[in-house]
Amino acid sequence: xxxxxxxxxxxxxxxxxxxxxxxxxxxxxxxxxxxxxxxxxxxxxxxxxxxxxxxxxxxxxxxxxxxxxxxxxxxxxxxxxxx
Length: 83
Prior knowledge:
By secondary structure, this protein is of the alpha/beta class.
């Protein structure tokens, strides 16, 4: 998580505003720097980012593949790399 913490800190220090998809949909002011943070597929380690997000008070969106979670099924790329 140190890498992610450093990334968020650096983006904020460089003038980026972290926004949610709803904020993008509502419209953003031109001429500013924006960043959207997303986590894909619902890996367990995504939860480790919550402390960093809370620390910097920034939003993030988690896209969870519910079919894989409910069926405890591996993604094909994880199964491939494990073989």
